[in-house]
Design goal:
Layout: E1 13-20, E2 23-30, H1 36-49
Antiparallel strand pairs: 1-2
């Protein structure tokens, strides 16, 4: 299965979600450099629901 989603000028942040068995994968695609909202989203899931969160990133937009 393949899913393609991409951000646009009107919608600069996109999110895709897939679950298999007891695992959920959430992917974000964005054209804006600001990434704080994504980090806050995962922090909320971890703190409020006690979920184990693993984050993999290409680190685009993260400054030194």
């Amino acid at each position: 299965m393949e899913v393609v989603f991409y951000p646009t000028a009107n919608n600069p942040l996109n999110c895709g979600l897939c679950t298999v068995n007891d695992n959920m994968t959430i992917s974000f695609s964005r054209t804006i450099r600001e990434n704080r909202i994504i980090g806050e989203y995962f922090r909320y899931l971890s703190q409020e629901y006690g979920l184990e969160v693993k984050i993999y990133s290409n680190e685009w937009g993260i400054s030194d």
